[in-house]
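tool=predict chain=A
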Amino acid sequence: MCMGSTNAKLTNMLCCVAAVEDMIAAGNELLTGTAPAERKFGFHYPPFNSVMHLHLHCFALPHKWWLRHKYTETEGPWAGYMTAQQLLDRLRQKAAA
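tool=predict ok
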């Protein structure tokens, strides 16, 4: 994913962490006052995404029944969706490696 020196890779991962944290903060701000306190944030990832840029899905819970299957984090080869926290954990793990 990253090219270059170890320092450049670490800087890139930390920038990714900051970007995702900023997206979560923006999502919380957008939902404040209009949605319940229970919220869910997440991302689709290839090959299960339909657009080729990073965008955050923000949900006020509970989900409508017909959205549950598309926006549920699962493990395995057919997963395709992860919570924002799962993405942050993976990015931080890569930064620490």
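The CA atoms of residues 21 and 41 lie 11 Å apart. The chain has one domain: 6-96.
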